[in-house]
TrEMBL record:
GO CC list: mitochondrial matrix
Name this polypeptide is given: BolA-like protein 3
InterPro entries: BolA, BolA-like_sf, Mt_Fe-S_assembly_factor
Record's keyword terms, sorted: Mitochondrion
Subunit architecture: Interacts with NFU1.
Keyword Acyltransferase found: no
Subcellular location(s) of the protein: Mitochondrion
Amino acid sequence: MLACSRSLNSAVVSALRLLRSNQTAVTGQLERPLSTQTDGEVRIAKILKEKFPSASSLKVVDISGGCGAMYEIHIESSEFKGKRTVQQHQLVNQALKDEIQNMHGLRIFTDVPQH
């Protein structure tokens, strides 16, 4: 995990650039298309889909280069309506409380669908 943490900043920058361009992710010697999810991404998405069944949009990205140390989550759900951003993030953190124990960091972006 320590070696993974050292390259975390460059992995974060690379992941954000790739999210914008929707190209193939290249981290060190590992190359994977963004459409291929890691086990961690699948597991976290499953938990969030169960906790927020009315989510109209959900995206989970391992931004640690594939080692599972840091994730970025974008979730849009009507369940966030009327809640402040910090409350929305607390709901996501609570849903992932067991998963978070094994992470170095988590970036959360929440929103309410615009109808």
